[in-house]
Here is the input.
Amino acid sequence: MDFVQQNLMWVMLAAISGGMLVAQMIRGGGNNIGVAEATLKLNREDALVLDVRETHEWDRGHIPNSRHIALGQLSKRLHEVEKFKSRPIIVVCASGNRSSSACGALKRAGFEQVFNLSGGIGAWSEANLPVTTKH
Here is the structure.
């Protein structure tokens, strides 16, 4: 008990971060994949990349040939990706948090092959993979 009292800030930080991880797992519906697995899915399985960042983030750079639907608009614009239901969908945001929520929404809408890009566009860029500003 003395340890907890002396390290209350660290104990609370650990509890909060653990809770955030659990919450993300519960609300998210996609499998987390890394950049290497994502590129394999793009090249071998004709996966669709769905970017759920805000427009100003998308404009600064995105994965070539990705589709852009901001997370806040996803429920209203699901019909735009309905034709891709049978293909793998790789969902990307800045870090992986918003895309996890989007994966959950896609799963609830009947999409079966939904993948959350771990680390988001940042991980993609760090791997020196192409990013474009073209629409």
